Amino acid sequence: MNRLTQSMILILLGGAVLRITTVSTTYLNYVKPGFRPFLIAAGVVVLALGVIGLVQEWRGAHADEHDGHDGHDGHAHAPGVAWLLTLPVFAIFLIAPPALGAFSAKSEEAQARPVAAAEPYDALAAGQVNEMTIGEFVGRAWGEGADSLAGRQVRLTGFAVPSQKKKDRWYLARIQIACCAADGVALKVAVLDADMPPENTWVEVVGTWKRPPSGRLEPGTIAPELTVTSLTSIPQPVEPYE
Amino acid sequence: MSERVEVEVAEEVPPPEWGRRQPLGAVSPWIFVVVVGLLLLGRLVFAPYLTAPALQAWATIFVAICVQALPFLAFGVLLSAAITAFVPASFWTRALPKRPFLAVPVAGAAGAVLPGCECASVPVASGLMSRGVTPAAALAFLLASPAINPVVVVATVVAFPGEPMMAVARFGASLVVAVVAGWVWLRFGRTDWLRIPSRPVGHGPKWRSFVEAMRHDFLHAGGFLVVGGATAATMNVVVPRAWLESVAGIPVLSVLVLALLAVILSICSEADAFVAASLTAFSPTAKLAFLVVGPMVDLKLIALQTGTFGRRFAARFIPLTFVLAVVVSMAAGEVLL
């Protein structure tokens, strides 16, 4: 592989990274929002490396032969493995990977524990709808603060996932990521008294927590339940993960 | 008349580029054009069919691993190139103790100052070696820095609220593994096992050899990162997590299983504490093993190390690190957790 090809691979890769971070919000399907400045910086660096290489190549074509860009001295020929750097570019443009959804939430039958909140949860207001993340809802339902949910209306946002064990059961799910989609864990809330929308549809539900018959759930066991009063389909949020 | 004269002149004086650099990558730019053509064509023709959920989940995780590692890789490569181009070799002989035996722990502890994940540390360690730092010391740095830097320590404290000993145990165990691995390599390692990447000795301005080293390292390490990312994504989609729960209660086996899971998942060391915390069924010692093994041995690191230092090195060093990491975590878990 000569320097021209190397430069073009770098330009392609840098361009793809800048494409998903600057002109669209696709990067949110893969990483936390906080990554954006670092991704843009890395994209610019990679793109610049490629452009510098092109310029050198173009200038080198008119300069002396000493430079040896056609691979006679060791470093100018990059290893063939560098071609693999086009794979993510192909994946980004061809498959255009969407945010993790029902497929990933389904394959994890065992419930994951949400990343614990550092401080105890606040009391919820009575007589109004409290907006919260599924992580917070599950965290409250499983922990000491379960009573804080009693009788309170909450609004949750997530996508629909059918249960694999019980036929008439479905979950409102959302993937929680700490850094990138590879570390995503699915958080699920069982939805009662509402028909399941098509799998993977994003919905906003308003309802109240249903106290389990045993009184309290062990953290990391079964999904808490929510008796739903209203259910609205919504477009996928810009930030698909919690 | 005048027309004919012009034609003759043109034939006598060929354009300057003739015969000069004909073979200039006569082939690969064309491969490249094909690649771009495939991209455009594929977007129109194939994209509507590439929608199987498993494939999409795989692609999401694959792209996520690559995208997430990219800034760290770029940073590591930048730092490594800067070390080779701008820091004189004499600096390292002054900064590190003369005796290799002492240089190993000092280099390991120095890992605490590089706030990156494992993708950054491989190119930096190779840059250090090519500047004459004892390989064993550079290896101690390579193992320690992704596990004990401040960002990772803070992430661990946040992920385990109310369990500060987890962060302490992780810091201590990782440093011990790094130093011991360095010493073992110093004592038993043979120089011909390790391929120290040769550096282009730039003739001409320093920035030029800087750019050259950066491009070379980035393409090289990046290619291997993609191998690791693809393997990790496959494992992530194929291996069901449910079977993990079934071994959670068994003492030694559960530690081994989480250590293997850390290898397979290849999660960035700055995020793995959150994943460990979500594995509620497992004992603290098993979680500690996950946190100690992950930054030192995982699929993407195996690919990166093999690519950078050679197969003979990786075949010896990776098992050594893995065994050390598991044993030390078990001991640390016994004492501290």
From TrEMBL, chain A:
Cross-referenced Pfam families: DUF1980, DUF1980_C
InterPro entries: DUF1980, DUF1980_C, DUF1980_N, UPF0703_membrane_permease
Membrane-spanning parts: 35-55, 76-96
Source domain of life: Bacteria
Annotated DUF1980 domain residues: 8-113, 147-241
Keyword terms, alphabetized: Membrane, Transmembrane, Transmembrane helix
NCBIfam families according to UniProt: TIGR03943 family putative permease subunit (TIGR03943)
Protein's name according to its UniProt entry: TIGR03943 family protein
TrEMBL record, chain B:
Top-rank taxon: Bacteria
Membrane topology: Multi-pass membrane protein
Keywords, sorted A to Z: Cell membrane, Membrane, Transmembrane, Transmembrane helix
Compartments, record wording: Cell membrane
Predominant cellular place of this UniProt entry's protein: membrane
GO cellular component: plasma membrane
Keyword Metal-binding assigned: no
Residue spans crossing the bilayer: 30-51, 57-89, 101-124, 136-160, 167-186, 218-239, 246-267, 273-293, 313-332
InterPro entries: DUF318, UPF0718
PANTHER family named in the record: UPF0718 PROTEIN YCGR
The organism of origin for this protein: Herbidospora galbida
Record protein name field: Permease
